[in-house]
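RECORD TYPE: inverse folding
INPUT: C-alpha coordinates
STRUCTURE:
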Protein backbone atom coordinates (compact mmCIF):
# COMPACT_ATOMS: atom_id res chain seq x y z
CA UNK A 1 0.00 0.00 0.00
CA UNK A 2 1.36 3.35 -0.97
CA UNK A 3 1.45 6.13 1.65
CA UNK A 4 0.86 9.70 0.63
CA UNK A 5 2.13 12.65 2.59
CA UNK A 6 -0.77 14.99 3.11
CA UNK A 7 -0.19 18.29 4.81
CA UNK A 8 -2.91 19.91 6.87
CA UNK A 9 -3.54 23.64 6.62
CA UNK A 10 -2.05 25.80 9.34
CA UNK A 11 -4.09 27.71 11.94
CA UNK A 12 -3.90 31.05 10.13
CA UNK A 13 -5.02 29.44 6.88
CA UNK A 14 -7.95 27.77 8.67
CA UNK A 15 -8.97 31.05 10.32
CA UNK A 16 -8.73 32.92 7.03
CA UNK A 17 -10.91 30.33 5.30
CA UNK A 18 -13.41 30.32 8.20
CA UNK A 19 -13.63 34.11 8.15
CA UNK A 20 -14.36 34.06 4.40
CA UNK A 21 -17.22 31.62 4.89
CA UNK A 22 -18.58 33.56 7.87
CA UNK A 23 -18.37 36.95 6.16
CA UNK A 24 -20.25 35.61 3.13
CA UNK A 25 -23.00 33.87 5.09
CA UNK A 26 -23.31 35.76 8.39
CA UNK A 27 -26.78 37.23 7.72
CA UNK A 28 -28.15 33.86 6.73
CA UNK A 29 -26.52 32.13 9.71
CA UNK A 30 -27.98 34.69 12.13
CA UNK A 31 -31.45 34.13 10.60
CA UNK A 32 -30.98 30.39 10.93
CA UNK A 33 -29.92 30.70 14.57
CA UNK A 34 -32.92 32.92 15.37
CA UNK A 35 -35.24 30.46 13.63
CA UNK A 36 -33.68 27.65 15.65
CA UNK A 37 -34.20 29.62 18.85
CA UNK A 38 -37.89 30.19 18.13
CA UNK A 39 -38.30 26.62 16.93
CA UNK A 40 -37.21 25.51 20.39
CA UNK A 41 -38.88 28.23 22.48
CA UNK A 42 -42.41 27.78 21.10
CA UNK A 43 -42.67 24.11 22.20
CA UNK A 44 -41.20 25.11 25.56
CA UNK A 45 -43.93 27.69 26.10
CA UNK A 46 -46.56 25.17 25.03
CA UNK A 47 -45.13 22.56 27.37
CA UNK A 48 -45.03 24.97 30.31
CA UNK A 49 -48.66 25.88 29.60
CA UNK A 50 -49.64 22.20 29.62
CA UNK A 51 -47.79 21.61 32.90
CA UNK A 52 -49.51 24.64 34.40
CA UNK A 53 -52.93 23.38 33.26
CA UNK A 54 -52.20 19.91 34.64
CA UNK A 55 -51.12 21.50 37.92
CA UNK A 56 -54.31 23.54 38.14
CA UNK A 57 -56.50 20.58 37.19
CA UNK A 58 -54.85 18.36 39.77
CA UNK A 59 -55.05 21.11 42.36
CA UNK A 60 -51.36 20.86 43.16
CA UNK A 61 -51.45 24.19 44.99
CA UNK A 62 -54.14 22.87 47.30
CA UNK A 63 -52.34 19.59 47.90
CA UNK A 64 -51.13 19.55 51.55
CA UNK A 65 -48.14 17.33 50.74
CA UNK A 66 -47.05 19.71 47.97
CA UNK A 67 -47.47 22.77 50.20
CA UNK A 68 -45.49 21.08 52.98
CA UNK A 69 -42.68 20.20 50.56
CA UNK A 70 -42.56 23.79 49.21
CA UNK A 71 -42.46 25.17 52.76
CA UNK A 72 -39.59 22.83 53.64
CA UNK A 73 -37.65 23.84 50.53
CA UNK A 74 -38.24 27.52 51.32
CA UNK A 75 -36.96 27.00 54.85
CA UNK A 76 -33.83 25.26 53.53
CA UNK A 77 -34.80 21.84 54.87
CA UNK A 78 -35.08 18.56 53.01
CA UNK A 79 -38.73 17.97 52.10
CA UNK A 80 -40.57 14.71 52.68
CA UNK A 81 -41.45 13.69 49.16
CA UNK A 82 -43.00 10.31 49.87
CA UNK A 83 -46.52 11.70 49.38
CA UNK A 84 -45.65 13.44 46.12
CA UNK A 85 -45.19 10.30 44.01
CA UNK A 86 -48.49 10.71 42.16
CA UNK A 87 -47.57 14.28 41.20
CA UNK A 88 -44.14 13.14 40.06
CA UNK A 89 -45.65 10.38 37.91
CA UNK A 90 -48.23 12.66 36.33
CA UNK A 91 -45.73 15.43 35.56
CA UNK A 92 -42.68 13.22 35.06
CA UNK A 93 -43.82 11.45 31.91
CA UNK A 94 -44.61 14.65 29.96
CA UNK A 95 -41.29 16.13 31.09
CA UNK A 96 -39.36 13.13 29.78
CA UNK A 97 -41.26 13.18 26.46
CA UNK A 98 -40.66 16.92 26.13
CA UNK A 99 -36.95 16.59 26.87
CA UNK A 100 -36.57 13.91 24.22
CA UNK A 101 -38.47 16.11 21.76
CA UNK A 102 -36.20 19.07 22.56
CA UNK A 103 -33.07 16.94 22.14
CA UNK A 104 -34.25 15.98 18.64
CA UNK A 105 -35.08 19.62 17.80
CA UNK A 106 -31.74 20.90 19.08
CA UNK A 107 -29.80 18.22 17.23
CA UNK A 108 -31.75 18.87 14.04
CA UNK A 109 -31.05 22.59 14.34
CA UNK A 110 -27.34 21.98 14.82
CA UNK A 111 -27.21 19.74 11.75
CA UNK A 112 -29.11 22.41 9.77
CA UNK A 113 -26.60 25.05 10.84
CA UNK A 114 -23.75 22.79 9.79
CA UNK A 115 -25.47 22.12 6.45
CA UNK A 116 -25.81 25.86 5.87
CA UNK A 117 -22.11 26.38 6.56
CA UNK A 118 -20.81 23.62 4.29
CA UNK A 119 -23.27 24.20 1.45
CA UNK A 120 -21.91 26.09 -1.53
CA UNK A 121 -25.34 27.21 -2.66
CA UNK A 122 -27.67 29.62 -0.88
CA UNK A 123 -30.56 27.64 0.56
CA UNK A 124 -33.81 28.72 2.15
CA UNK A 125 -34.29 27.92 5.81
CA UNK A 126 -36.88 25.30 4.89
CA UNK A 127 -34.53 23.66 2.37
CA UNK A 128 -31.70 23.72 4.91
CA UNK A 129 -33.84 21.93 7.49
CA UNK A 130 -35.08 19.40 4.91
CA UNK A 131 -31.51 18.56 3.91
CA UNK A 132 -30.50 18.41 7.56
CA UNK A 133 -33.32 15.96 8.28
CA UNK A 134 -32.00 13.67 5.54
CA UNK A 135 -28.59 13.67 7.26
CA UNK A 136 -30.06 13.54 10.75
CA UNK A 137 -32.59 10.73 10.30
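DESIGNED SEQUENCE:
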Amino acid sequence: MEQKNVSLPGPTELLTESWKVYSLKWKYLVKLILFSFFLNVIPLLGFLSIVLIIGVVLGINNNPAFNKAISAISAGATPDISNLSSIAIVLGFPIIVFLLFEIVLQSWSQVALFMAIISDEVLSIKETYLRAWQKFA
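NOTES: Residues 111 and 132 are 5 Å apart (CA to CA).
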